């Protein structure tokens, strides 16, 4: 009867091996129940014995830290908000300066036309 709760073991033959005694070794990966990955090599000795060699301690992946994710999301939202506010302020400042320049030129033109059309000055200029 096959084992229904067993995890599969993934094995592959490395292309080249540095050590002479590991030439016939097969590299295997096994994922445990708590999401740890164990790496080991499997080889057969000349006498027929199977040799399993653990390469490293199990590598367990931990989930992301909730506080780090929260701070990253809040920081990104604040940064986007500040950039949008600065852009809006720049656009409004440029628009206001153009409007003020237009207002100043219209005010100067109105004052010049008012001085030229003053009847008192026109009569003095005619008789002098």
Automatic annotation (TrEMBL):
InterPro entries documented for this protein: Integrin_bsu (IPR015812), Integrin_bsu_cyt_dom (IPR014836), Integrin_bsu_tail (IPR012896), Integrin_bsu_tail_dom_sf (IPR036349)
Transmembrane segments: 66-88
Residues annotated as domain Integrin beta subunit tail: 2-65
One GO process term, biological-process aspect: integrin-mediated signaling pathway
Alphabetized UniProt keyword annotations: Disulfide bond, EGF-like domain, Glycoprotein, Integrin, Membrane, Repeat, Transmembrane, Transmembrane helix
Keyword Lipid biosynthesis: no
Domain spans labelled Integrin beta subunit cytoplasmic: 89-118
Superkingdom: Eukaryota
PANTHER family, per database record: INTEGRIN BETA SUBUNIT (PTHR10082), INTEGRIN BETA-5 (PTHR10082:SF26)
Protein name per its UniProtKB record: Integrin beta-5
Species in which this protein is naturally found: Ataeniobius toweri
